[in-house]
Amino acid sequence: MAVPFRIGVLQLSMEPVAETVAMAQACERAGFDAFWLAEAYPWWRKHSYEARSSTAITAIVARETKKIPIGWGIISPYTRNPVQIAMEARVLQDVAGPGRFFLGLGASKIFMKEVGEGEKGEKSAGPATVMKESIDIVRGVLGGQQFDYEGQVFDAHVPPLKADAHSPRGIPPIYIGATGPVLQRMGGSVADGLLTASITTPDFIRYSRAMMEEGCRKVGKDPANNDLGGVVVGSIDKDPKTAKEGAREMAAMYLANKVQNIRGSADVLLQKAGLSFDEIKPIADAMEAGGRRAAAKAVTDSVLEKVCPIAGTPDECIERIQQYRDAGCTHILLEVWGDDRLEQAKLFGDAVIPHFHK
What we know:
Layout: E1 6-12, H1 17-30, E2 34-38, H2 54-64, E3 70-75, H3 82-96, E4 101-106, H4 109-115, H5 127-143, E5 147-150, E6 155-158, E7 174-177, H6 181-189, E8 193-195, H7 202-218, E9 227-236, H8 240-260, H9 267-273, H10 277-290, H11 292-297, H12 301-307, E10 310-312, H13 314-327, E11 331-336, H14 341-351, H15 353-356
Parallel strand pairs: 1-2, 1-11, 2-3, 3-4, 4-7, 7-8, 8-9, 9-10, 9-11
Antiparallel strand pairs: 5-6
């Protein structure tokens, strides 16, 4: 059965918990199909934000909402042993209930850079090996049977879950967050879905769809059953200028990030957007000199258009979402930014989401 087209919201775990919960509740009222939380890391202090544990926050979000699915988009096995990831997943399954949890894993280039992983230490086998072993272990532990695993990076030895144990059963859909081709193919071959990074464009969705489908075919899976989620900057207002200014600030933070933290691994992402490092370096320089608002001023109209945000009036947002859908995206993950995001969620729910829920 082919996956349905969904529109969700993704936030970073860099804001006060009460604000995150309020946004999740607003998204539920608006009729969004999912609420994802990406784990922020200390780099975000450059933008006057503090990193928080996304697994802890999503448990609270699940308790404070009733039906909207909750996703980790993403957490990293470089920060948690996969057995620990499975333990935390059980908490989400317990709190959220059946069918309300998506488990997203990714290497997180920012964290790897900050702690030196991938260059030294036990995980020097590389992200592909770490990801494959982590998914094997998470599924093995959540499966509930006797599980013994000895990998290149991780080992796990877990006894079976007894029939009378008070615990949820089952394995949630597992996603890989990836930009490069190796992990994107694994999003098809070993996972249930693929999540693309920020500054995703329709052209990058087409590229990612091809990589994921190649991975599916390699193991004999029907690509129609795999979900492709694209993280896209979003901002909506009845005044198009106001909406685009919200998108401009979020785009500035992410473009600066591409220069400062993950240069190299973001090359294809930027190429598909028609952006060069020389073109976005002034944005990173402005960020260093004056913070995120100064960086936003350095994002020209031309650069913003290349980023392809879902930003503008409701009709403009509908048109852009359709472009992503036509490119092969099956799950929009909107990073809503700008003034009054709770009201923006409501406007998306009133004027945009019904168009795609017909």
